[in-house]
Design brief:
Radius of gyration: 18 Å
Bound molecules: adenosine-5'-diphosphate, magnesium ion
Number of helices: 7
Structural class: alpha/beta
Shape: globular
Largest sheet: 6 strands, mixed
CATH topology: Rossmann fold
CATH class: Alpha Beta
Order of helices and strands: EEEHEEHEHHHEHEHEE
Strand content: 25-35%
Strand order of the largest sheet: 6-7-8-3-9-10
């Protein structure tokens, strides 16, 4: 479980300062699908960076399984991230000239695993995710939806407990977007905490817990009903 207690984030100083998060108190439950929903500029990516230990708050505390992240030094925090979290981004960040297999196995190099074991692990996961026929293709040969599913495999390969995805469907057509959402749902159903950052209400409807952000203020709530329009448009 990850808990944020009275988290503030202020970028910059003086007249140019931006108060991106304001007294945010939220919980990410183990094994649940959580959406961080809000319009552009509402603070979603900033909040995801706090939850994932990629950035630290200006004030307040981030606790993960009883550990205070602010008390870890740089190396301890990097080790925590490598062990606990997997990240998925809108623009995939795959190595275009590498094969799918090498892209997915890459985090295991950082984990110090031997090549044979890395490749076996990556192949097993790619097969499970329905990407068996793509294993030896270069990343640049894939469609957007396939690239995003490969990047989800890369986020999972080292066995994290939390997967954080920042606008993962943002560069995809609606059909590929749905496939990516279904895959993330499956990841949560199999016991990982999934944290989805999105401005898209339809995508947020996959979530069991919803953190609704408005100008840096967070409201924690349950699932969004089919007919609900949170933006009031
Ligand atoms: N590194 C930064 N430096 C200064 N301002 C930032 C930085 N990152 C984000 N912001 C500002 O913080 C606010 C929230 O940004 P962000 O978390 O990226 O929102 P979202 O992901 O919802 O679009 C915005 O006003 C944005 O311009
Ligand atoms: Mg963002």
């Amino acid at each position: 479980m990850i808990e944020l207690k009275h988290v503030d984030k202020i970028y910059g100083k003086g007249d140019g300062a931006v108060h991106a998060l304001k007294d945010v108190c939220v919980t990410i439950r183990d094994g649940k699908f959580t959406a961080i929903l809000g319009k552009s500029g509402s603070g979603k990516s900033t909040l995801m960076n706090m939850i994932g230990g990629l950035d630290s708050p200006t004030a307040g505390e981030v606790w993960s399984d009883g550990k205070l992240l602010g008390a870890l030094n740089k190396n301890q925090l990097a080790a925590y991230r490598n062990r606990t979290t997997g990240f998925v981004f809108q623009s995939f960040y795959l190595e275009p000239t590498f094969t799918v297999l090498d892209n997915v196995a890459m985090p295991l190099i950082i984990a110090g695993m031997k090549r044979k074991e890395r490749e076996a692990r990556a192949v097993e996961l790619l097969e499970k995710l329905g990407l068996a026929d793509k294993i030896h293709k270069r990343a640049s040969e894939l469609s957007g939806g396939q690239k995003q599913r490969v990047s989800i495999a890369r986020a999972l390969v080292h066995g994290p407990s939390v997967v954080l995805a920042d606008e993962p469907t943002g560069n995809l057509d609606s059909q590929s977007g749905r496939e990516v959402m279904e895959l993330l749902k499956r990841v949560a159903d199999e016991g990982k905490a999934v944290v989805l950052v999105t401005h898209n209400i339809a995508d947020a409807k996959y979530a069991e817990d919803v953190i609704f952000l408005r100008d840096g203020v967070a409201e924690m709530r349950g699932p969004i009903a089919e007919s609900e329009n949170l933006y009031g448009e």
